């Protein structure tokens, strides 16, 4: 089982910039992209079919068709993704959208464009760790993508076998 | 507002080929002794052989979780070898309660106390603070720091599970590792922790489950070993292997002039709850160490902190829930299996298959330790102990050696297996950090484990005899 990270962003240049900045994670987790919500849903189906888990979504708000915030709200009732951590990466969400994202989609983080690559990586690492902790997954296969020292708490009550 | 997210689906893991084969072979191996009349083996022995073969295959292939196999062993013994057996007519059988009693065996109670103290040490930050204080005298250069790191890891591991010790020490060391240049020095430090955690586990009865399995089996034969008695048997070996491991790892991986700063700040919790915890934990350890003076058995002593920590609410119902119940069940399954092998006459039959007395004693012990280390390199240490301790104790009946020595040897040998990432959970943690290549782990495991195994098989029995410990 691999942890998957989904980038939902309609602008190709921004998608590529995000992927480039998240390159340190590329060999440890599954990085997926979608340019609209419909594609994102297909990607979630693929991730699930492969036995992987969607751990984190980086979503833009303003998209063609369904908005990013509406997509994040819909994730909460999707049993394949209801535990996924969510980051809104946007320059265009107004106050009302942001309030809905926090209250209805239980948004975990908000990143304003343009982002700082090191801070984004640190945030992604923290969120992946929170996902692994909240689902009580075995952190060892994913350790290079996690905050290793924090992930060690999951091993405290594992016991010797 | 959608504060209630949907419940995530539970996905069952898919079985690997080895697991499927294990299930299939397990069922076949279970049926054979029941279907075919085995010469020289009573019906009860045949039933026990069926259970034992199934347990071997399930524990070796992990076709079902290790603790599930343990519960299956107990259930099958009740259904086939107790007064509640589905098919009787094979003479008088022990009551079903005697098999269920494995779950409350005194050794399980001892571990319950050990686990609760260990969890409390983490809850109140005692493990990390002790590590910080004890590391201070070793500050200076990298080789000395690694010695300190190994000494503290081993000391914690004597009372806390090897896995939790490795997790605590890695949480402390990972930020420090990042400051070292990539390469051998990081590998050396990252290897020092699992090696010390594995070896430290042999030091006390509560250090590691194989110790409990051996103790339980010995107690069933009326050969109980006290807490301090176990330490006298195991600590000398532990210290020598640790020193050797430190010498090997530092000479191979860490240059003498490597800078390494291991300065940690200790910040002891001084809340009333923490102080009550220190007092209860300290008194328990003191009572364990002084058993010859007061005569209260280590299991009874182990139950005192359970009562005291829960009564004072220093440890809560949540802490009780979080205990490592799967480990306790695995040990209980091993105790039940050992009892069944002894009661059914299967032990005598198994040992009669080969003429062991034709072999010199030293060679036999070397073989026993070698098989234990080899098997527990590839499967769980506790499962190895569950399978080999009953066999080794039956073997000891016909040998000119104290059964205690044989039981303790198998338990200690199981903890010396550390050549692969899968050998022990601390190894798996070290491997997952990405700082230890498999080849380095294999080499250090082979050299250090091999050194320990030779010492254990060839030198320890005479040392124990010379010191009058047996």
TrEMBL record, chain A:
Protein name, as recorded = Response regulatory domain-containing protein
Which Pfam families does the record associate with it? Response_reg (PF00072)
Q: Which residues carry this modification: 4-aspartylphosphate?
A: 60
Q: Which Gene3D superfamilies match?
A: 3.40.50.2300
The record, for InterPro entries, names: CheY-like_superfamily, Sig_transdc_resp-reg_receiver, WalR-like
Keywords (alphabetical) are: DNA-binding, Phosphoprotein
PANTHER family in the cross-refs: REGULATOR OF RPOS (PTHR48111), TWO-COMPONENT RESPONSE REGULATOR RECEIVER PROTEIN (PTHR48111:SF9)
Kindly state one GO CC term assigned in the UniProt record: protein-DNA complex
What terms describe the molecular function in GO for this protein?
Answer: phosphorelay response regulator activity; transcription cis-regulatory region binding
**From its record, what is one biological process in GO terms?**
regulation of DNA-templated transcription
The protein's superkingdom reads Bacteria
Please report the stretch or stretches of sequence annotated as the Response regulatory domain. 4-128
From TrEMBL, chain B:
One GO cellular component term noted in the UniProt record for this chain: plasma membrane
Where does the record say this protein resides?
Membrane
- Listed Pfam families: CitMHS (PF03600)
Q: Which UniProt keywords apply?
A: Membrane, Transmembrane, Transmembrane helix, Transport
InterPro entries named among the record's database cross-references:
Cit_transptr-like_dom, SLC13A/DASS
* Main localization, broad class: membrane
Which GO MF terms does the UniProt record name?
phosphate transmembrane transporter activity
Ranges of residues in domain Citrate transporter-like: 56-409
Transmembrane domains' residue ranges: 17-36, 48-76, 96-118, 146-178, 227-249, 270-289, 295-315, 327-346, 358-379, 391-420, 440-467
**Membrane topology qualifier:** Multi-pass membrane protein
Name of the protein described by the UniProt record: Transporter
What species does this protein belong to? Thiocapsa imhoffii
